[in-house]
Amino acid sequence: MRRVLTMIALSFASLAQTVSAGPLSPVTNDAPIVRSTPTAIRVRPDTTNATFPATLLLCSTANCIQNDCAHFDLIHLVNLDGVCVTGNFHIVAAQIVQPSNSGLPFEVAVGTAGCENRVLVPVNDCVNLPSNEVFTTFEALN
Questions:
Q1: Tens digit of pLDDT per residue, the chain (142 long)?
Q2: Which residues pair with 56 in a beta bridge?
């Protein structure tokens, strides 16, 4: 407590020395300048024209309800042209979610076993797959 009072007294003493007033002196505000280091600001990337992020939703129920979907980051498919990826479940609906809606440099398809009977997956629009076939795979088509 004594240290705090000493600091306050020193602060007032320094202020008293910096302010001078007289009958003809202008009114000024000579308050001490407080400098602080700015805190870190998280800058988010502008995704309005970006290809990525883009996420493939592979859904086990119709209409792409996200709780029933596996999410796959499409940045990992860029160099996997024609590689058939097998899922562990029956894909009923699929969608590519892309905030910029700018499209991809490749197409994505879901297919039956061995990536046969493929259906292209649209960007930002859900596609319910034909119920007469079992879709369990997906691939990038450059």
A1: 444 333 444 444 444 444 444 444 444 445 444 444 444 444 444 445 578 899 999 999 999 998 999 999 998 888 888 899 998 899 999 999 999 999 998 999 999 999 999 999 999 999 999 999 999 999 999 8
A2: 72, 96
